[in-house]
Design brief:
By secondary structure, the protein is an alpha+beta fold. Helices cover 44% and strands 12% of the residues. It folds into two domains: 113 residues, Ribosomal protein L31 (Ribosomal Protein L31e, Chain: W, Roll); 32 residues. A hairpin with a 2-residue loop joins β3 and β4.
């Protein structure tokens, strides 16, 4: 029998299989940022620096579809970029990157004293919370209290009361309208007589 001839892999497939980083492998980079954000407006420099880090990692960690959503930055890395405000991010940054499934995660290579203190504080708080919580027991869900059935007057009675109130209001309105009409009639037939003369007579001057 003739030997089966295998098709040679294309260059692109060979490149992808050979150069793809192994799972969990860490790499360190010094990312230059000044050139990227120098020409942007001052009030957009920190977001531009974060985008520059993602673009750098997409290129150097061999993400072939160039999807920036696959790059996940650590919260302390993000905080370090924003420490000096939106207008003045660092000119370069040293980061560690590693592959985590379909994503590439990046974090600071060396934490500053302030960030180290903050991280330690958060970890200590989490340990204390874990120690206080009972182990192996699920949090008890409070049972719903049975609904109280309140004794209310029947719907028919309430409807009757509403009808009576409406009738009373209508009667009051009608009485008011009748009074207004009677007053208008009286005013119509009354003659207005002014006691004072329309013009004052000029009296002769005394000699």
């Amino acid at each position: 029998m003739a030997e089966e001839t295998k098709k040679p892999e294309t260059k692109k497939e060979e490149k992808e299989t050979s150069s793809k980083p192994s799972q969990g492998k860490e790499r360190e980079f010094i990312v230059p940022l000044r050139r990227k954000f120098k020409k942007t407006a001052p009030y957009r420099r920190a977001p531009k620096a974060i985008r520059a880090i993602k673009e750098f990692l997409v290129r150097h960690m061999k993400v072939y579809d160039r999807d920036l959503k696959k790059i996940k930055l650590d919260k302390y890395l993000n905080e370090f970029i924003w420490t000096r405000g939106i207008k003045n991010p660092p000119a370069k940054i040293k980061i560690k990157a590693f592959v985590d499934g379909d994503f590439i995660r990046a974090e600071l290579a060396e934490l500053t004293e302030k960030l180290r203190f903050k991280k330690g504080k958060i970890e200590k708080r989490e340990k204390e919370a874990a120690a206080i919580a009972p182990k192996g027991k699920e949090p008890e869900v409070p049972e719903e209290a049975p609904e109280k059935t309140e004794t209310r007057p029947s719907v028919a009675k309430s409807e009757e009361e509403k009808a009576e109130e409406k009738e009373k209001k209508a009667a009051v309105v009608e009485a008011g309208q009748k009074l207004e009409k009677a007053a208008a009639k009286k005013m119509k037939f009354e003659t207005k007589v002014s006691k004072q003369p329309k013009r004052q007579r000029r009296m002769a001057l005394q000699k």
